[in-house]
Amino acid sequence: xxxxxxxxxxxxxxxxxxxxxxxxxxxxxxxxxxxxxxxxxxxxxxxxxxxxxxxxxxxxxxxxxxxxxxxxxxxxxxxxxxxxxxxxxxxxxxxxxxxxxxxxxxxxxxxxxxxxxxxxxxxxxxxxxxxxxxxxxxxxxxxxxxxxxxxxxxxxxxxxxxxxxxxxxxxxxxxxxxxxxxxxxxxxxxxxxxxxxxxxxxx
Length: 203
Hints:
two-stranded antiparallel sheet, elongated
């Protein structure tokens, strides 16, 4: 998400320090991706440079000191952000998509092992997100909203990994029917994990 616009949104509620903004950001997003003080300070400095916010009680020896508040420019940009739809990132720019696209292109990559490694990591993240979601209070709507989206994204990623596995199996079957001799490193030669193995990984 845009930390830039998140800071503007939080400041629309009133002036705040860097530490207060960082804490408010983490609370609003359920700490799915905690914001460190360095990220907060850098973002706020850029907003100040661009005339979106101003700081009172500035301390040259402490970049986190003083209260931040919105300028008219900041309010105008925030209003535009609220009124605009969020543009989706291009799928081919996402690291995981690029990684698998390269894995089935570059010779010598064990795609089945890569799939299982990623599936295990995604399942672990799903279990952790589920645990955190269960601990969210019903009244904490902001954190619940963020965590629900995170859970849906992880579940979709697992389905996508299963789709890749199915596609590789079909490719291997076509090669077998065509009587092609397997080449070392071709993605279709790597047997995908069995349904039993997948079931074990999901527990």
